[in-house]
Design goal:
This protein has 150 residues and is mainly alpha-helical. The chain contains three helices and no strands. Helix 2 packs antiparallel against helix 3.
Length: 150
């Protein structure tokens, strides 16, 4: 047997009998325990964070639905007004009556458009504020949980 083979065999024989010091085992076990505990805390924070994000998304979706419902209602209202005006114009007997009906329709549509624009602006402001409030609340909650976990 050559020198290298003999040294290798002696090393493995000695390694079979070697013991890991109790202090090293205790440190390793403590480290694993602390790592598991920290992981558990941050895993909880992450899961809560996902729930918070879902809440923000639900708030944003509800706001978007409110806005789209309002736009659809306005479109229906405006389209119905156009048809009513067209019917009235079609029944006009004279040019002055036709022009008067058209003028009244245009004035009403300007008034309606102004009111609808104001309503949409107010609704979009409200939706944006609700979404921002939800985001701020979510961020605050998440940061507080991270501070507690850390």
């Amino acid at each position: 047997m050559n020198d290298f083979a003999r040294q290798t065999q002696e090393f493995f024989s000695a390694a079979k009998e070697a013991r890991i010091p109790d202090q090293v085992q205790a440190i390793a076990e403590d480290s694993v325990s602390k790592a598991r505990e920290t992981y558990g805390k941050f895993n909880t924070v992450a899961k809560d964070g996902v729930k918070v994000i879902e809440e923000v998304i639900v708030t944003a979706q509800a706001g978007a639905k409110s806005l789209s419902d309002k736009v659809l209602k306005n479109t229906e209202t405006n389209t119905e007004a156009v048809f009513q005006a067209a019917e009235a114009l079609a029944r006009a007997k004279t040019l002055p009556e036709f022009l008067r009906l058209q003028t009244v329709f245009v004035q009403q549509q300007f008034t309606t458009a102004g009111a609808q624009s104001k309503e949409l602006f107010e609704l979009s402001t409200k939706v944006a504020q609700q979404t921002l409030d939800s985001l701020n609340s979510a961020a605050t909650k998440t940061f507080e949980q991270i501070k507690k976990a850390g």
